[in-house]
Amino acid sequence: MMQAPKAPMAPLLDPAHVTDSLTLEADYTTITFYEDRGFQGRCYECSSDCPNLQTYFSRCNSIRVDSGCWMLYERPNYQGYQYFLRRGDYPDYQQWMGFSDSIRSCRLIPQHSGTYRMRIYERDDFRGQMSEITDDCLSLQDRFHLSEIHSLNVLEGCWVLYEMPSYRGRQYLLRPGEYRRYLDWGAMNAKITFYEDRGFQGRCYECSSDCPNLQTYFSRCNSIRVDSGCWMLYERPNYQGYQYFLRRGDYPDYQQWMGFSDSIRSCCLIPQTASHRLRLYEREDHKGLMMELSEDCSCIQDRFHLSEVRSFHVLEGCWVLYELPNYRGRQYLLRPQEYRRYHDWGAVDAKAGSLRRVVDLY
């Protein structure tokens, strides 16, 4: 079996140091995004939170942080991969441990001049072994003999949680508050296994995160086992082509996921949220009749007397739109953002048969 490298759930913590004297004395904070490497190309200077940076630049290959501590996000509305940056120059996206040149939103981390304090727990809902931290921790495994954390209580200051020791891997901003399970801070413990042959036979590949190109791991995909998480699979590399929504379960052949062929070339892990809400409109640009949904809808025609939807505004959670009623036909992943016309979600027409929340039912 070929296996993607897996990391412990949360083996280290780092308090976000937002108390440097230059930032505290400054009247404002600034971060500058550049489209090209080495601080070249079109740029945009920002001094506060921004939920959607797409109108200011199309890509981000270098960043200069003049003051403040920032959390950057791969997607709009503070979704996707997170990257913690403090004052300094970042001439290319590898310098901030980026996976691509996509930066779509940013958040200024509140300054804190006092002490830092948090409690970590080995089980959900603040159960099991508890340890208190007041300073940086390079490795939770070495210090507390923990390879996983299932709940947190941040008492003072903001912290950055890293997936791997030595401040590496996926990052999560932790503000003061209670986090009863790892989903609360946006982490996921997911696994999907692709098999070349039907019935979970032949060469296989195990994956635990987004992958824009699966072609190097297998030539065809005829069965899939999802152990945890909710996934969107794509017929072509770079999240293109037909989409297939899968959650925990066994899929012994590609008809089970409504596949058109044995071609699966990319996949993404869908973030989990506690609540879901979207608005659908009968006309483009959020015009005409508007309906709001917060639960699954097996038939849009029966419920709202609409056979077509021409724009969406996804307010909370991720959804899957199906072309036909009863969760059949072509599928489209809808993330929290505005969709002003059907081309925005990748469709070729405005057909809308049913809508389903992305929820791991197990």
From TrEMBL:
Keywords: Eye lens protein, Methylation, Repeat. GO terms for biological process: lens development in camera-type eye; visual perception. It comes from the Eukaryota. The keyword Transmembrane helix does not apply. The keyword Metal-binding does not apply. One of its GO terms (molecular function) is structural constituent of eye lens. This is Gamma-crystallin C. It comes from Pteropus alecto.
